[in-house]
Amino acid sequence: MNYELSTEEQGLFDRVKDFADTVVAPAAYEYDTKRRLPMEIIAQMGELGLFGLPFPESVGGQGKSYFQLCLAVEALGRVDQSIGVTLEAGVGLGVMPIYRHGTPEQQAEYLPDLVAGRALAGFGLTEAKAGSDAGATQTTAVLDGDEWVINGSKQFITNSGTPITRFVTITAVTGEKTAPDGSVKKELSTIIVPNGTPGFTVEEGYDKVGWHTSDTHPLTLTDVRVPATNLLGARGRGYANFLQTLDEGRVAFAALATGAAQGCLEEALRYAKERVVFGEPIGSNQHIAFKIGRMQARVHQARLAWHDAARKLDAGKPFKLEASIAKMVSGEAAMDNARDATQIFGGYGFMNENTVARHYRDSKILEIGEGTTEVQLMIITRELGLAA
């Protein structure tokens, strides 16, 4: 496995890193305090082509790789995880299901604006009693003539209530099916629900510990009617389709977490060289130096893990195991580095205007979102042939 970046890949990373440092970082604290997604920055990301990176030029995309999307997500995550996850979810949970499973008509209607960043979309999977256990989904969709009638609720849905959110793809129980062993199971399907549809309510945004800038809402669906043609993919394939969506999303999520870990490392290293105590930079203290050394090791490990998963994804090779490893390793690296960086900064690290303080609040979700650490361990052990 070659972990060197090509000239094109390095150029992309450098461009997004420069954008992150000069545009995103200076505004991060202001928007974090306001708890508002900066739409002008999202528009600039669209102009840079970031939302269209992994899609072919035939649908308005940039014709690049999923690996290159992950590079962009990592570069943004260094300075602002909320902006990084807006791109990650916007592509992986918003655009990708339409690109993978949409009809030609659905693609023609939605892809141009989505890949250009003029519109965003969400993916409504999680419910109060259904997250890791998607089979417990309670939202229902019943065919009534040529319309689906949908009732239920969703939780923690990213990019669902922005000014440019076009729709949310929701998972719903559309019937029952008999498994090969004779058991009867829920038939899950995915359906496109446009924002503004009567009965579809985007509730007030959450008061979150972190990711204050990221747009996240609960959703309520009460007798929501959408055309039968809004079915996304084959009926009954919702479970399989969202598993593919999550596997791919975990790779980009790992890149986001790696960026967060890298950002903490950079801030801690800078401060250790600048902060003088008793006439010496604190970085000359072996305890501080060793802590930063461990931070570097975590970043290196996390980056190698997501690179491996992304290269296999792009090559069309199995990557489920590698995606779960990358997601787990990088999430833990981000949380550990955030804690260590905050400790190195001391009292300054406890001030919200400090980048490491924001990473400290933001990074915990990296061990939870896109499948908890425990879910990743379950997947890893199952891939090893253990009945975990």
TrEMBL record:
Domain of life of the source: Bacteria
SUPFAM superfamilies: Acyl-CoA dehydrogenase C-terminal domain-like (SSF47203), Acyl-CoA dehydrogenase NM domain-like (SSF56645)
GO MF, one example: flavin adenine dinucleotide binding
Keyword Flavoprotein: yes
Acyl-CoA oxidase/dehydrogenase middle domain location: 123-224
InterPro entries for the chain: Acyl-CoA_DH_CS, Acyl-CoA_Oxase/DH_mid-dom, Acyl-CoA_Oxase/DH_mid-dom_sf, AcylCo_DH-like_C, AcylCo_DH/oxidase_C, AcylCoA_DH/ox_N, AcylCoA_DH/ox_N_sf, AcylCoA_DH/oxidase_NM_dom_sf
Cofactor: FAD
Keywords of the record: FAD, Flavoprotein, Oxidoreductase
Oxidoreductase as UniProt keyword: yes
Pfam assignment, any one: Acyl-CoA_dh_N
Sequence ranges assigned to domain Acyl-CoA dehydrogenase/oxidase N-terminal in this UniProt record: 7-117
Segments forming domain Acyl-CoA dehydrogenase/oxidase C-terminal: 236-384
Family: Belongs to the acyl-CoA dehydrogenase family.
Protein name as catalogued: Acyl-CoA dehydrogenase
